[in-house]
Amino acid sequence: MRRPLRLAVLAAATLAMGVTAGCAGSKGKKDVAYVARDVDTLYAAAKDRLDKGDAKQAAALFDEVERQHPYSPWARRAQLMSSFSYYASRDYPKSVQSAQRFLSIHPGNKDAPYAYYLIALCYYEQISDVTRDQKITQQALTAMNELVRRYPNTDYASDARLKIDLINDHLAGKEMEIGRMYQSSGKWLAGTLRFRTVVEKYQSTSHAPEALYRLVESYLSLGMPQEAQKAAAVLGSNYPGSKWYDRAFGLMNKHAPGTQAI
Questions:
Q1: Axis-axis angle for helices 155-184, 112-124 (nearest 10)
Q2: What values do phi and psi take at 164, rounded to 5?
Q3: What percentage of the chain has pLDDT greater than the value 70?
Q4: What pLDDT, on a 0 to 100 scale, did the predictor assign at position 21?
């Protein structure tokens, strides 16, 4: 999945507004060495690094703002900019850590929605293909739902709703992948449980028609033609023009011709 940087970049730019101080003169690794600097200069140096595309170095400098000037108003802003910089450098664990730290200290801050959004994005962009463990996918779903629940009228929530649909489709795909594996090894009942999960929990995803067809297959293999007929009827009612319905219709006529027509 491509990184949805547009909202994140816009929010980061908003957070960074107001910087007028010049950048620090030190270069390279010296930028993150402990050198006492006034907060304006230190923050500007971090912002300059971020603007030049050195997000990892920028994150370290934003962290230094908070370390050297913990009671400055700039420290609060630096926490979020640090989280964004880690996100931009794809250091997702540190980005989540920085955003969670911000929320623990400033739970009611006006920028809290952005912090929740960054956390959700970090999980979302680590989603792996359906052949692998989907723990991170569940974390992404939880984070996106939390953002929508807390801040339903924000642009971040609007983007989260779109991603929730994609996440659910991905989770349904994982259930289908496991179900088909059970079918191929003759474990029809185990496969049926996976396909029923898709039909009941992810019925709005693109995998629902195939899941219903696989239920028809499984029930016929288990010697349960009446259950197969029910699944085929639901498939015909909701997806009458799909290839999965045509296949289900053929299976029913071949293996259960005496069952009530679907």
A1: 20
A2: -60, -40
A3: 84
A4: 37
Q: How many CA atoms lie within 13 Å of 12's alpha carbon, on the beta-carbon side?
A: 25
Whole-number Cα distances in Å, 257 to 220, 228, 229, 251: 12, 12, 10, 9
- Please tell me the pTM assigned to this model: 0.80
Class of the CATH-defined domain 1-126: mainly alpha
User: What is the separation of C-alpha 188 from the centre of its chain, rounded to a whole number of angstroms?
Assistant: 31
Give 19-50 pLDDT, tens digit per residue: 433 333 444 444 555 456 688 889 999 999 99
3-state secondary structure 72-122: CHHHHHHHHHHHHHHHHCCCHHHHHHHHHHHHHHCCCCCCHHHHHHHHHHH
49, 57 contact by CB (below 8 A): yes
Would residue 255 be called left, alpha or beta, if left means φ above 0 and alpha means ψ between -120 and 50 degrees? alpha
Can you read off the two tokens belonging to residue 84? 């964004």
Angle at 233 between CA 230 and CA 234, to 5 degrees: 90
